[in-house]
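ok trying this again, last paste got cut off
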Amino acid sequence: MTAERRTRRAFLGRTAQTGLGLLLLHSLPAWARGGSRYRMAYRERSFYTMGSIATVCAYGESTAHVDDAISKVIVEFGRLDALLSVYNSASEISRLNSSAGQGPVRASQEVCDILELSKGFNVQTSGLFDITVEPLMRLWGFRGTPRQALPTDGEITNALGAVGMSHLSVDSENQKVLLDRHGSSVDLGGIAVGYTVDRAAGILRSAGIESAFINHAGDAYALGSPDEHDGWTVAVPHPLEPGNIVHTEELVDRAISTSADNERFVTIDDLQYGHVMDAHFGRPGTRVASLTVVAPLATQADAYSTAAYCKPGILADIPETSSFLMERTNDGVLVQTCSSDRRRK
């Protein structure tokens, strides 16, 4: 492989824009932007969706072919955002949350499937992946007015009473969903983007696209490999120094997701608290600065990086994954740990 081919990078990461969400760090070298240098036509499009920027890079038979496929992906992101977002009062998830404690509500088969999938990840991660942490997100100031002081133990205990997958029941056969406790609510932030990225990859495949990279603010899927390259090389930036690349992965038909405490946070008493909640204790995880997980599907990578953020050791029991961890020691120093791919035997 030539040095030029090894240099190709799809820079992947997430950082905070205070109050505005996430910023996608995605760049291709200037020499890679000219599709005429390759056997296939190359196109790249970025668009705002699901609270951040998504970028799709793809190769196809012609620019018209690729543009048409990417347009279908953009439509799909918009459809799923409207279906799954807690920020859209008309979404199915918002309707479910507003009906908590009032009986079951009708849901589409797709929402039932995603909720069932979430329950499966909850079991697999010993309860660390939990889509019912929305009461904790509100308590810690991630929704609405920021907090001026840390939540009290009593406030945390009260919020935890509404948290837990036992409060969520899914009847897929009759397409009904129930949140049995008033105050309970669902937030699909740890799985919805990964699910949508997988849907996008499926749309591109169906359109005849064999090589593409889909990235939404750090949840990404590498479809095939770039024209005349062995894989899509993804670089993970330092969580505190975005210009400093600390890890790379070369991906072919694999997904990657990064959770970091600088991507979305609240500041209370001059201390920064990241948005990934430990559903067992009702507090944000604090030891992990950045956790990157590689898995077969974006849905898996998204869920596993969210769950393992509070307890990285759980990844040791999850097959077909690898990870890159930057964890704080007691004196605040960041220590890097890289695991090998855990293949299913």
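PB: full thing came through this time. The CA atoms of residues 68 and 180 lie 44 Å apart.
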